[in-house]
């Protein structure tokens, strides 16, 4: 048995099954989205539905075959024909049992494939760097949507598998009853559609209550996650009783909503089952009366009674699938759509196509491709073209931008920003360490602009080596936020990420001042930090986050208040090591820490936006007269032939003005 290999069709594929989800545009409705999800895995649901149809038809054939056997074999006292019909029944049993087994397996596999694709789509949206707006941002809400709502929505795939077999069984039973007695068949053909319509109408209450149940459950989960995240603060403020009371109220509301939803589900199923039972009991009584009057034979009566008992199952399951499953799925579809369509508050401008494809050469500007075209035109404008043989040997047209030089010695950072009433205009030379003394709103705005999540209020923005920030390849500029998150795992796991090897991670931990507290840890760098790093103190978490940023060794690194939670002695040591470990790399410090300000080569102080405008108006005529920016000898700092009044004042670490 150990050496046996499973058949290819019995193995789960190594790669996820490709599933195309329906569009999520603003015109999409929860009902249409649910239908699209149901049809998303047709390569599995269609074969599964075919096998389920065979299963239901096989079960419906059992009372028919028994009735025929009674009339022909037992009524005719023919033992040979009796054995023949018993053999037919055995084959029929084998057929519908195997059909059910493999149909259910394939259908479940399709359902799991759709669920995996849905959960992946929701997770991608929740983890999108552009962020989220709305209720999905609350802790626990995203988890509830990605788990419970996605599972309920994926359950709707069963509607494409089992109801087809149930409808086939109802139609087959109606046809058989119609051949035996047309009033009985007519009752089935009229009663079944009427019940389906009634189920859809009656499911409205369940849909509404199911949606409220999921929303309140997500709210309770969010409050619980929020409470645990701020447990230390809540304890310090002695607000534990009030926080617990709020969670209990939210939990009771969620429980009440669940009970209301289950009550509606029970009423719906109970009423549908009662209606189905009364309907089929009427058919059975009518068949018995016809048998007593001689209109039906004994075998036909057995067929009618057997079919009536069998049809209870398909008609009840239709009520379940189109009642509870459909109602729950459409309610969850609305919540899934809310997450997938939620706006991105930090939408970053699209990078060039060349960088998106993994190259380091900037994409041509509009109208400067291999064949130059005027904006909006489809024909060459003339002039030099690749066809004239003027293209460079690397395939780049002479008018194309030069490839971006990623050498850290040539990556200068130009800052031309307006942040409210303040402005910053300066150039950070390659390998320079500068500090900007900002905090509060100004610091948050500057971090958002430097990370590409927002546009400045004015000015040309941030340019790297003369190019727009959006054109920089990933990994060129890294912005480490003040409130950084740690992941569950060890200290080393949290630092050795993004391609950083172990040696670089260990060196970064030393530079960030982590060695002292790690020596006191039971497992040194292999000590678990816990969920969100909560096993560490605030200062320890901050130093590990700083080490993670330093380990990336990016050409340009922006640090926002990296040492606010450490003591002054440790801060002095970290500031000294920071200069050494970032030697030859550009570093921008957004902080008011005296230790970090003293460690910087220059301090860039924000000026007023009005001074920036006046400075630009003064410099533009000078530039036209030939006063171009040049690098001061040995500094890499831009100067002009005449000293302009810049909006930002550059100060050396010793306090002098440059």
UniProtKB/TrEMBL annotation:
Residues 359-409, 609-658 are annotated as: Disordered. Its main location: membrane. Residues 406-633 form the ABC transporter domain. The chain crosses the membrane at residues 48-70, 82-102, 153-174, 180-199, 266-285, 291-312. Residues 371-386 have a biased composition (Low complexity). It is found in: Cell membrane. One of its GO terms (cellular component) is plasma membrane. One of its GO terms (molecular function) is ATP hydrolysis activity. Keywords: ATP-binding, Membrane, Nucleotide-binding, Transmembrane, Transmembrane helix. SUPFAM superfamilies: ABC transporter transmembrane region (SSF90123), P-loop containing nucleoside triphosphate hydrolases (SSF52540). It is a multi-pass membrane protein. The keyword Membrane applies. Residues 48-325 form the ABC transmembrane type-1 domain. This is ABC transporter ATP-binding protein/permease. It comes from Streptomonospora mangrovi.
